């Protein structure tokens, strides 16, 4: 853990030292840093957070308390939401579809039973859903999904993330390929020994190659009826927590004269490189929301989380300045 933060600090020091000689901070001002973390955190204040648990195959003993050096410390979905909102005031949710998956959205503060503090002036708060940890008996889990979960460092957790996200796709593909090699001599008489190494595909391929491979395999498998093709629509439906999420926000129907747009800021390699996934998402939205889906816009937010965290740091320090004066 120390090495990771030493590395971040060094990169930051290099960046600062590369600034032009004519850059000077106003007297009494410090630099303001935004920091996003791609793991579930308990937000103690904007500048302080503690790690709740590791996901995506990480397991590091050291307790992580993020507060020594940045003005804003937020989960990556919150950063993406803030960055997205800066560019489009209609952004109501942020979704990450990459190595892991998660979503954050803007909720009416009075509708949050867990919140017992003062209600914010805006009447709104952001919720980090940690939907990667979603599981339900309706999730179509195949043996190829179950095995990596059982063998993972966090069995029974992050099930939704484990069946769709970039971190696990390669492993799912490897297991399907292995079975095809064993039962249908897919690669000839012998199973390639490399294919037996867990997570080998994760390390040897780029995410977009893996995505393509899983897609091709799904098609091959579906047409040969070896195992059912389980990816695509069913997964996508869960992304939007069914229609209920939209109902909750009052955005599931089109009201007369209502031209409100609901923009979703989306980041991550899975979304960026897997066109079919994106198409499925759009058609499922249409199916779930009907005409109301016309007002839903998905915007790709490239590295939006870092920018969002920096913007949060900047706006927080402006707020402090106003409070002081
Ligand atoms: C983490 C989330 C994070 C997501 C996307 C998940 O594994 O639990 O906190 O937002 O990955 O990076």
TrEMBL record:
Gene3D superfamilies: 3.30.420.40, 3.40.367.20
PROSITE patterns with a match to the protein in the record: HEXOKINASE_2
One Pfam family recorded for the sequence: Hexokinase_1
Residues annotated as signal peptide: none
One GO term of the biological process aspect: glucose metabolic process
Any GO molecular function: fructokinase activity
Catalyzed reaction equations: a D-hexose + ATP = a D-hexose 6-phosphate + ADP + H(+); D-fructose + ATP = D-fructose 6-phosphate + ADP + H(+)
Annotated EC: 2.7.1.-
Annotated metabolic or biological route of this protein: Carbohydrate metabolism; hexose metabolism; Carbohydrate degradation; glycolysis; D-glyceraldehyde 3-phosphate and glycerone phosphate from D-glucose: step 1/4
One GO location term (cellular component): mitochondrion
Family of the protein in this entry: Belongs to the hexokinase family.
Protein known as: Phosphotransferase
């Amino acid at each position: 853990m120390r090495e990771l933060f030493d590395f971040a600090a060094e990169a930051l020091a290099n960046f600062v030292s590369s600034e032009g000689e004519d850059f000077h901070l106003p007297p009494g001002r410090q630099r303001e840093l935004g920091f996003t973390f791609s793991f579930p955190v308990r937000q103690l204040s904007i500048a302080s957070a503690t790690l709740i648990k590791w996901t995506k195959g990480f397991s590091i003993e050291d307790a992580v308390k993020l507060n020594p050096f940045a003005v804003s410390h937020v989960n990556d979905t919150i950063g993406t939401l803030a960055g997205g909102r800066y560019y489009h005031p209609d952004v109501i949710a942020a979704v990450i579809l990459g190595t892991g998956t998660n979503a954050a959205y803007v909720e009416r503060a009075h509708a949050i039973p867990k919140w017992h503090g003062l209600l914010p002036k805006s009447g709104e708060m952001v919720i980090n859903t940690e939907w990667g940890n979603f599981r339900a008996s309706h999730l179509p889990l195949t043996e190829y999904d179950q095995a990596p979960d059982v063998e993972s460092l966090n069995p029974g957790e992050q099930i939704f993330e484990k069946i769709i996200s970039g971190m696990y796709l390669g492993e799912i593909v490897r297991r399907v390929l292995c079975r095809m090699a064993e039962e249908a001599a897919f690669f000839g008489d012998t199973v390639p020994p490399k294919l037996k190494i867990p997570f080998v595909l994760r390390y040897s391929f780029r995410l977009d190659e893996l995505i393509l491979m899983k897609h091709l395999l799904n098609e091959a498998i579906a047409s040969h009826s070896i195992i059912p093709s389980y990816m695509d629509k069913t997964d996508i439906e869960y992304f939007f927590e069914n229609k209920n999420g939209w109902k909750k926000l009052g955005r599931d129907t089109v009201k007369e004269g209502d031209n409100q747009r609901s923009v979703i800021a989306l980041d991550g390699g899975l979304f960026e490189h897997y066109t079919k996934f994106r198409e499925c998402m759009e058609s499922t939205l249409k199916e779930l929301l009907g005409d109301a889906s016309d007002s839903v816009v998905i915007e790709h937010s490239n590295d939006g989380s870092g920018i969002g965290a920096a913007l949060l740091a900047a706006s927080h320090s402006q707020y402090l300045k106003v409070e002081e004066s």
